[in-house]
Amino acid sequence: MAFDPGFATREDAQRRVDRIRAFREELAELERLGVVALDGGQQDRLRRFHEEAVASLAARFDVDSTEAERRLSLGMRVASFLGAIALSAAVYFFFYRFWGSLSTGAQVGVLAAAPLAALAGMELAARKERTLYVAGILGLVAVACFVLDLNVLGATFNLTPTPGAFLAWAAFAGLLAYAYGLQLLLLAAIAGFTVFFSSQVSSWMHCPWEFLGERPENLFLPAVLLLLMAAFVPSRGLPRFPPLYRACGLIVLFLALFVVSNWGWASYVPWPSGTVEAVYQLTSFALAGVAIVVGSRRGWREVETAGTAFLALSLFARFFDWWWDWMPRWLFFLVIGALAVAILLALRRLRSTRHRVTA
Amino acid sequence: MRRAGPILAAAVVVVANAVALVGVARNRAGEPEAEVFLTERELPLALWTEDNTGAFLRLEWQRKFPGSKIETPWFDRAKLASLGFDCSYPAEGKDARERYGRMVPWRAYVVLEYDGPAWHRWLEAAEAAPEGKDAPRENARVSASRLVPIDVGRDPDELRRLYPDRSRCLIVPAIVAPRWTLLEEGEGDSAGKAVLSGRIQYILVSEVHVPKHLGAPLAAFRAADAAVPRPAGPRDGDRPGPPAPQRRHTPPRYEVLLRYGAHHEPWVAEVRPLP
Fold first, then answer.
1. Measured between CA atoms, how close is B117 to chain A, in angstroms?
2. Is the Cβ pair A155, B209 closer than 8 Å?
3. Three-state secondary-structure class, residue B29
4. Between chains, do A160 and B211 touch, taking CB under 8 Å as contact?
5. The pLDDT of residue B93
6. Residue A291: which of A359, A227, A219 has the closest Cα?
7. Element (H or E) spanning A34, and its range?
8. Residue A298, exposed/middle/buried by CB under 10 A (0-12, 13-18, 19+)?
9. pLDDT > 90: percent of chain B
10. What is the rounded distance in angstroms from the CA atom of residue B149 to the CA atom of residue B158?
11. Nearest C-alpha neighbor of A208 from the set B22, B97, B109
């Protein structure tokens, strides 16, 4: 029987290889225990099928077929990330080191050509290498070149800074992320997208966009949009993208909530700081709880983790506010420890409930 | 998406660059909105490092009126209210400090007058002010910037109508905010009184790039500055390098023809060494 993978992404292929490896290990264990016993013909057919499947997937998607390969791949991912950062820094400093000796026309030409050249290199690398390590590096370099391009263009012509640049960077990184299935580029796109939409909220509130960081509520809209994008932006063949949207959306939301629930003066709401903080603290607890429950029910690990971490952080911040000044240190940390145990028990209960429902 | 993505990404690069360049062309098309010769006093060399060979001039203007705790006395409560800030709460009120401190800054246009009556008033006040940390440098007549803010508004066209001299008054986008101040001793009869005023936080384009074909005279001055031993400051250590321009207390060495366009964005049109 010929092996037909029936899917098109490396993630799917890697999952299939992992399943085959797990199946073979489990089968060997079952045979050792005498639970099942395949005859020689069955064993040969199964072995040949699996070997053919793994070889086919390795040839087409360059998947990791052993644990050792998987560890090496992780190292390669780290190395490619660090390489991308270093190369981007090199491009940045190289340009600044020499741009004074270029005429304005040459500067404009070099600036616009740099991201396009990196993009062409990325496409070439992607055609030659299925793992996309080099393409990923060149993709980040292309984004860095485009950031440099618009920044230096603004400085050269003394332009008033505009948030539109963040939208352009986000669009560029996002298009490349979807074209090549690269999460790091999607992260860059999400960052640009977040700044752009925060700046829009800031402008609606008559606050200059350069000050968007001073009003954490500016982040609420991009956070909600990111959560909606997880649900509505088509990610067929890119199974890691929706969790990334959800994780980033929640991190942005919780970060904004944390700041404004501790420093109420940073809010747009014209109430006394104490009232603003109290309202946002309650909102924080409620949303953390919702994230834990929804994450648990839907099997969204990143949502559950973000909710749990934020709940713990918020509780710690509140206890610090209420008790740190008057409570003995040992008692304070004892209460924190007891609380951690209580959260653990609650989560265990939730987990066992879910386990029963699934069973 | 796999095939279209890179093409669309390339299109984003092209369109973004085109939009920026069209904006530049529109800003510089036609008659300049303002055109003024400034000197090194108003446009000193911006700080530079060996890692950045671009030449920039820093727009220097008088941020504080000498001898007054209020930075710009004309930027009072009424002016703030005219910009649209809600100034209805009394400055002496219990929550005034928090209320006005929490207000978000706004974008507005500031009129900077060059070497005009406002500068002469500033100079008189500087020379009359007692010695102290708030007093300006004693060589203000020689090296201080003669650009003084004289008005602020939301509508640049209205400001230009009020200040029609395009060779003396620059209209520049800036960030402004309310400022609540408690006057202390030395403020006369109003000592201990709370005052609400406006504050120009910063000018949006405060560094102006000098293109290569105009930068030759500045390169010589930069080289001369770099040869001067750098005084050790708290952040400088003994590291060699160019002196901070604001530490210069000598007559200006060059003048610059600075133009502002339709978008109130500047560009350097000419650089001339001064005798």
1. 29
2. yes
3. coil
4. no
5. 85
6. A227
7. none
8. exposed
9. 58
10. 16
11. B109
Q: What is the enclosing helix (H) or strand (E) of A185?
A: helix A183-204
Using the Cβ of A160 and the Cβ atoms of chain B, whether some distance falls under 8 Å is answered with yes
d(CA B208, CA B266): 7
pTM: 0.85
Of A96, A178, A207, the CB nearest to B104: A207
A78: burial class by Cβ within 10 Å (0-12, 13-18, 19+)? Answer: exposed
Query: DSSP labels for A259-276?
Result: HHHH-GGGSSS-S-HHHH
Torsion angle in degrees (nearest 10) through CA of A89, A91, A97, A100: -130
Q: Write the pLDDT tens digit of every residue in A226-251.
A: 999 999 988 877 888 999 999 999 99
CB B111 within 8 A of CB B170: yes
Q: Scanning the structure block, which residue is given the tokens 């973004």?
A: B16
- Does the structure show a pLDDT above 80 at B110? yes
- Cβ contact B204–A111 (<8 Å): no
Q: How many CB atoms lie within 10 A of CB B148?
A: 23
Which among A219, A115, A90, A131 is positioned nearest to A169, based on CA atoms? A115
Structure tokens at A300: 């969204």
Q: Band the pLDDT of B239: cuts 50, 70, 90.
A: very low
The CB-side HSE value for B8 (13 A sphere, CA atoms) comes to 17
Q: A157 touching B, CB under 8 A? A: yes
Low-confidence winner among A282-286, A349-353, B75-79, B262-266 (lowest mean pLDDT) = A349-353
Q: Would you call A5 an interface residue with chain B, using a CB distance cutoff of 8 Å?
A: no
Average pLDDT, chain A: 89
Please give the order of strands across the beta sheet that includes B169-182: B147-153, B106-114, B169-182, B194-203
Q: Are B84 and A99 a contacting pair at CB < 8 A?
A: no
Length of chain A: 359
Q: How many CB atoms lie within 10 A of CB A29?
A: 10
Residue B212: which of A103, A178, A214 has the nearest Cβ? A103
Q: Of chain A residues 212-271, which have a CB less than 8 A from chain B?
A: 214-215, 265-268, 270
Can you give the length of chain B in residues?
Answer: 275
Helix %, strand %, coil % for chain A, to 5?
80, 0, 20
For chain A, the distance separating the N- and C-terminal CA atoms, rounded to the nearest angstrom, is 34
pLDDT of residue B226: 79
In three-state secondary structure terms, A37 is coil
Is the model's pLDDT at A53 over the cut of 70? yes
For A116-159, what is the HEC assignment? Answer: HHHHHHHHHHHHHCCCCHHHHHHHHHHHHHHHHHHHHHHHHCCC
A180, B5: Cβ pair inside 8 Å? yes
Q: Give residue-wise pLDDT tens across range B26-69.
A: 999 999 999 999 999 999 998 877 788 889 999 999 999 988 88
Secondary structure (3-state) at B40: coil
pLDDT in tens, A13-51: 888 888 998 898 899 899 889 888 888 888 899 989 988
Paired with B272 in beta bridges are B255
Would you say B264 and B173 are in contact if contact means Cβ atoms under 8 Å apart? yes
**Are B106 and A207 a contacting pair at CB < 8 A?**
yes
A286/A153 Cα distance (integer angstroms): 45
SS (H, E, C) B152-183: EECCHHHHHHHCCCCCCEEEEEEEEEEEEEEC
